[in-house]
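Practice record 12: protein with 3Y8.
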Amino acid sequence: MPNILILGGTTEASALAHAVAATGLPAVLSYAGRVATPKSQPVPVRIGGFGGVAGLAAYLRTHAVTHLVDATHPFAAQMSANAVAAAATGVPLIALTRPAWTPVAGDMWHPVPDLDGAVAALGGERRRVMLALGRMHVAAFAAQPQHQYLLRFVDPPTRIPPLPDHHLVVDRGPFTVDGDTALLRTHAIDLVVCKNAGGTGAAAKLAAARALGVPVVMIDRPVLPERAQTAEVATVMRWIGHDADRGV
Ligand code: 3Y8
Ligand code: NAP
């Protein structure tokens, strides 16, 4: 009898949780506990870190997990590395991820390799910059205090962000093109900084920027260790041994 652990926090993880719930197979979806009220799920949820690789390996053992699905965000590199290491103790692992975004006609992207590259790309004259990076990496941009920043967090911050000129929007995705277009217009944004998250939940700002002719500093994904991976929930269901097409 499968016993599935889904490392969650993404649209894809939620979609998988619904597919697994429909089969009645035992499953748990795990959140890090990064936000105050994580989205509710149709399977039991656990919240909080495992305590590194050893903690995750112990969890897999004590909970007799038979299938580990890493459905975390492409930038959750530490969690993904820990999953590969802990699964090496003998638990089958697959990653459910989504393809990186690629530019289309009208996109004005400036690709950078990482967060430091994004900070360096903001040298120069004052601009009106949307930092669509969430809360965890805003402090790095204090190195470029000359800009007027638009920030978007899931939860109100516990401390005032260290950027002298910023406007904060508290909102959680998935976002809409109309909503993000209105946001960029209202704040006269002339540059967007974001991660190459892929998927649909964060893509609206790219369509908005394209429509408004706003350039985008696009942060490339971190390199992750080798592991089996797919972008399809149905492939994960087949991997678990239940073909979603049979509706079981
Ligand atoms: C806690 C759990 C679902 C999942 C929904 C997806 C889409 C909406 C868009 C912008 C970009 C950003 C951010 C974003 C999006 C989805 C997805 C996604 C980006 C929740 C959630 C958790 C988090 C953590 C949070 C991070 C932050 C990143 C905001 C739930 C809502 C910027 C990533 O305040 C904090 O500390 C927030 C931290 C990690 C990145 C950062 O560095 O700040 N996500 N986001 C998860 C946990 O505890 O394990 O309540 O749903 C999930 C979602 N956020 O099931 O529908 O699939 O990616 N999340 C980015 O893409 O750059 C917002 O504003 O345009
Ligand atoms: P990270 O930097 O890769 O992980 C840091 C530590 O957080 C991990 O070592 C682990 O702690 C804990 N952790 C991360 N994801 C977890 C999960 N799903 N369940 C239990 N513990 C988890 O991760 P992150 O980038 O902070 O992402 C945290 C969460 O937000 C994940 O669920 C991710 O999918 C979601 N998310 C992240 C982003 C992003 O931009 N990074 C975007 C959207 C959603 P221990 O070592 O103690 O086990």
